Amino acid sequence: MYLITNRHLCNEKRYLEVLEESSFNGIENIILREKDLKNDELKKLYFKTRERVNKETKIIINGNYEILNLVDADGIHMPFDMFNKLKYKLEYKEKIIGVSTHSIEEIIEVKKYSVSYLIFSHIYETKCKLNLKPKGISLLKQAQSELNGYDIKLIALGGILPNNVKETLNYCDDIAVMSSIMESDNVKDTIKSFL
């Protein structure tokens, strides 16, 4: 299970508590997605997070190669446009490389390269993507079919809740969540309801 962070969904003190609780209760990967932070702030946040979370939890930097190199994080997550610009330069064999995709065409392009996982979104309606039509399960099935035979994990994102997670996991390798956990008062129980 992947947690995508958003510090605007909880206060500063609670933010690190959520990440810590998540890492000890089933979250294996944390994508630090604080796109508005300057490099020095993101660097500090990475080290604060690393101190608090389970040693086994992977911390993946969102969209910032400079910070990836400075802090030696476990990996990088890129929006598709960033991936498209850098795909010929990807040289991190020992790092996790993730890419956000929003169409089958993007998946077809990404699967040609050595990436660890791709996130396909958004699957269901979500308040994060109001007025945008969700992809739905049928497109997730198609995404799964496209990756058949490739060593790339398919991660579903967007509107995934305890009541639809079981069906969703029939057509992907894992799920990513953001608001359900970032806004939770009881992270352990929230994660348990997904698992």
Automatic annotation (TrEMBL):
Please, which domain of life does this record's source organism belong to?
A: Bacteria
Pathway(s) served: Cofactor biosynthesis; thiamine diphosphate biosynthesis
GO annotations under biological process? thiamine biosynthetic process
Q: Which Pfam families match?
A: TMP-TENI
Q: Name one GO molecular function term.
A: thiamine-phosphate diphosphorylase activity
Q: Which InterPro entries match?
A: Aldolase_TIM, ThiamineP_synth_sf, ThiamineP_synth_TenI
Tell me the protein's name. Answer: Thiamine phosphate synthase/TenI domain-containing protein
- Which species? Paraclostridium benzoelyticum
